[in-house]
Design a protein that fits this description.
- By secondary structure, the chain is of the alpha+beta class.
- The protein has two domains: about 90 residues, no CATH class; about 260 residues, 3-Layer(aba) Sandwich (Rossmann fold), CATH 3.40.50.12660.
- The chain is about 25% helix and about 25% strand.
- The protein has an eight-stranded mixed sheet, sandwiched between helices. A three-stranded antiparallel sheet has the order 10-11-12.
- The radius of gyration is 23 Å and the shape is globular.
- About 40% of the residues are buried.
Length: about 375
Amino acid sequence: MTNRQKRCNQCGRLLVVPQEVQVFECAVCHGITWIGPTTSPWSQAYSNVHHIAGRFRGFVNTIMASSVNNNSGYYGITHFGYYPQPQPQPSSLMPSYHVYGSKRAVLCGIRYHGKSYGLKGSINDVKCMKYFLVKEFGFPSDSILMLTDDKEEKNPLRIPTKTNIQMALRWLIESSQSGDSLVFHFSGHGTREMNMDGFCEAICPVDYEQHGKILDTEINAAIVSPLPRGAKLHAIIDACHSGTLLDLSFMCKMNREGYYTWEDRRCCRNDKGASGGLVICISACEDGQISIDTSALSGKVVTGALTYSFIQTVQNEPGLSYGRLLSVMRSTIRGTKTGIVRLNGPIASLLNRFLGPEIRQEPQLSSSEMFDMYTKRFEL
């Protein structure tokens, strides 16, 4: 078989491909290159679609350590193309993740270093959450992807930029199947904006001032709609204005008799349900409320009130129901009168000045389907 060298039209890398091949997929960026004399509209569209999908696969391949080697002088082979063996990279930039594990999580903690709206507890939150998932629920450590703007973080793919968070969410949901348990935890700024349909909620990546926020509709499309039947996803969102951040169909509310019931939100959310899997979101507060960083709960360490009360409640009462979990978390935060460090929102300074320590923050629970809050046990 005679080989020849051709450049990828997407990344420009020089590739070695068989002489008779007329189209190949770059094994580095996964872009599609056509070698034929003409390019039809169909082939151009095909190339564009595969290039977009390939950007995500390239992200996953980069963060996963690879042990593929052979004796032919090439590092690997894709369906259509070959690529030369790359130079070794520092192992710290290539952590090993088991993408197809039945339990996996994405944890994002953002401090916004050097900003007037910087936070103090977010990175503590994700570190505590990782320990909690591993110790209490048996999540493999190498199936937990942490994104933080910790000054010690040297891997550019672990910085919680908008692009990295979007890629991480796709990693979380890709190849999920019945029986899987997935977790998305975010501790950082949340915001609320007006659009043509009313208000929309969003989270703020570390680079949101340059590249924008991640809207509730985007999060729903990334990890809610694609979740397959039989899989479950828990989202723990420690941010302001986060009550309906996943755009789920049902919101837990307390009726006049003091019992939790379900409010059907499908009419105002265009029924953006999961594909059959169960999605449950535990968020820091209602859409119109703010959340806090505080040292009052732990005694010393600054944490998000939602994250700390969630971990503490589950650890103290193994096997508790979702209704009990929500009630205890609300009671814990309601009793926090001192030690508030900063409100978790862009208007923090003004709110701290006028509201003082009496903060109204009620954790919320929403779901893709209704269940009995008092009998269904919390489990990951």
